[in-house]
User: Which sequence fits this backbone?
């Protein structure tokens, strides 16, 4: 369907600058065809928000990008490497460059904040010195403003603090791409704003490329360079916040109505 | 129609458990080995179960002795009480009761722990962090359960026999040395070895079922509770089935 919005005035990342390139992606669960010939390009240093209703397949999309789900057909290129046919070992090499902030934070309940942050470091770099690990943990915690929680358990933290710690764990390997799955869902407006600002700050500081799944418009407005609207498993519209919020399209308008 | 559906469900579940077990053996021999997590699990599964297993073992030995004594008295063979209790505890009651306690404590805890990790995406987070979650969570726990249950059974047997000696001394006087020499004089190789070997299978069954139920947990927190419950039920039933099979095999081998 031509919405008249797609590509309106947007300079799409070229072949050289694309860090993720998804072509004709299809994935079904039983009779539920979640993504249908979905296409997306994420450029280096770009922040793209995928907007869609609950259950529209947004989380499925980013789980496909890190190889947690296998698509039925289509291709996903990350840094130019096709990942859908990779084995676990090859996927691991790509995953080092990708950070993933889970909707539920996915902090390990049985570990302290320090152990949570050390876990990916110890898995990736076996021979790293303890002093170096300590420095990296403290740097990641400083980035999210929670240096004093290092010996606390996740259960002792508030929802907003857990989100920040999860973000610190995502940052600790200094990924080039960060995938955010509903980063502000379930948070109060003040904390949601703080997390959104942190996402923008991190993107500027480390020049990361971000793919953000969200349906919270304040987060979308603050974080997006570009918005992709996912409807019926397809990329329905693609544009900046200003372009899409001014659209008269009856499928796009409800996302931006106050 | 309803019966056929439940039979189908049973066969499907059995097939899935068999496939999960096959995956365990494949992963067991692939790098990287998670030694640190394995030893941590041995501590959690073994050491943390000592008090419970010791207490139940003591009560088991004491009660068994007090219950058997009147019957043996009636036939005038009270002197055979240490031998009878010893054989009963070492061959059957010690391994089976300890395995059932183990299934209740460890099977449910593994099922709930892995189940909650599954529904809160911690397993996905592990995979994204470059960790093979099956190897890290399942292989280590199953191995720890397999190697810790036999140790717990040995301890439980020893404490049960001690409880039995105390039970005998409630209504009579038998020295510690005499009691234990009577117990060991009447225990043969065929009593001890099959009973010890089957505990490895009991431990494996409890570990693999706990992990399977947790790993395929769904439907949120309700599903976690269901996984823990179902892990206990299925592994307890499996303990009895394994026991039945082992008894038949030892019988065929002439060890009974």
Assistant:
């Amino acid at each position: 369907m031509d919405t008249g919005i797609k590509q309106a005035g947007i300079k799409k990342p070229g072949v050289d600058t694309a860090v993720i390139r998804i072509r004709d992606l299809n994935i079904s669960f039983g009779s539920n065809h979640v993504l249908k010939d979905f296409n997306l390009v994420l450029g280096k240093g770009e922040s793209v928000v995928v907007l869609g209703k609950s259950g529209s397949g947004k989380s499925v999309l980013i789980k496909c990008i890190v190889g947690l789900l296998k698509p039925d057909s289509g291709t996903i290129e990350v840094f130019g490497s096709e990942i859908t046919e990779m084995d676990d070992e090859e996927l691991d090499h790509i995953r080092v460059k990708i950070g993933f902030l889970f909707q539920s934070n996915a902090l390990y309940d049985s570990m302290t904040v320090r152990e949570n942050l050390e876990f990916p470091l110890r898995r990736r770099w076996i021979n790293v010195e303890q002093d170096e690990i300590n420095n990296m943990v403290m740097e990641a915690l400083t980035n999210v403003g929670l240096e004093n929680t290092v010996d606390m358990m996740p259960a002792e933290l508030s929802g907003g603090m857990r989100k920040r710690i999860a973000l610190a764990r995502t940052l600790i390997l200094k990924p080039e791409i960060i995938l955010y799955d509903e980063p502000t869902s379930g948070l109060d407006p003040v904390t949601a704003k703080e997390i959104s600002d942190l996402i923008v700050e991190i993107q500027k500081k480390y020049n990361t490329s971000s793919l953000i799944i969200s349906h919270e418009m304040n987060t979308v407005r603050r974080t997006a360079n570009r918005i992709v609207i996912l409807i019926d498993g397809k990329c329905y519209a693609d544009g900046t916040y200003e372009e899409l919020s001014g659209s008269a399209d009856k499928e796009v308008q409800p996302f931006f109505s106050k | 129609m309803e019966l056929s559906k439940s039979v189908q469900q049973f066969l499907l579940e059995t097939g899935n458990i068999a496939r999960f077990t096959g995956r365990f053996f494949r992963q067991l021999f692939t790098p990287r080995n998670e030694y640190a997590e394995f030893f941590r699990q041995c501590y959690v599964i073994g050491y943390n179960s000592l008090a419970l297993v010791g207490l139940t073992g003591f009560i088991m030995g004491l009660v068994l002795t007090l219950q058997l004594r009147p019957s043996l008295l009636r036939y005038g063979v009270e002197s055979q009480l240490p031998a009878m209790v010893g054989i009963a505890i070492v061959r059957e009651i010690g391994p089976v009761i300890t395995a059932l306690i183990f299934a209740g404590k460890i099977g449910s805890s593994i099922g709930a722990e892995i189940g909650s990790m599954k529904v809160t995406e911690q397993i996905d987070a592990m995979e994204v962090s470059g960790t093979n979650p099956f190897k890290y969570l399942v292989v280590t726990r199953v191995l720890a359960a397999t190697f810790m249950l036999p140790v717990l059974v040995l301890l439980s047997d020893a404490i049960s026999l001690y409880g039995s000696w105390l039970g005998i001394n409630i209504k009579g006087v038998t020295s510690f040395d005499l009691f234990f020499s009577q117990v060991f004089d009447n225990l043969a190789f065929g009593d001890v070895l099959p009973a010890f070997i089957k505990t490895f299978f009991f431990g494996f069954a409890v570990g693999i079922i706990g992990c399977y139920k947790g790993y395929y947990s769904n439907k949120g927190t309700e599903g976690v509770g269901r996984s823990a419950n179902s892990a206990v039920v299925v592994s307890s039933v499996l303990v009895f089935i394994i026991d039945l099979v082992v008894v038949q095999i030892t019988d065929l081998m002439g060890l009974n």
